[in-house]
Design brief:
Layout (H helix, E strand, L loop, with lengths): L1 H19 L15 H8 L10
Length: 53
């Protein structure tokens, strides 16, 4: 039970941070590599994903 409560506490803090910044989780299709915003997030620092993309 403690692990579940702590996991939700972590999630709640993450969601609260998004709300403070006017952000929300980015939707993406199941089975995909994630939202296109994730690519922009990593490439802005000159990085790239490793593996099949």
């Amino acid at each position: 039970k403690d692990e579940i409560e702590h996991a939700w506490l972590w999630c709640d803090r993450l969601i609260a941070g998004w709300r403070l910044q006017g952000e929300a989780p980015k939707p993406y299709a199941a089975g995909s590599w994630g939202p296109l915003a994730s690519i922009a997030l990593i490439t802005r620092d000159g990085r790239s994903w490793y593996g099949d993309f």
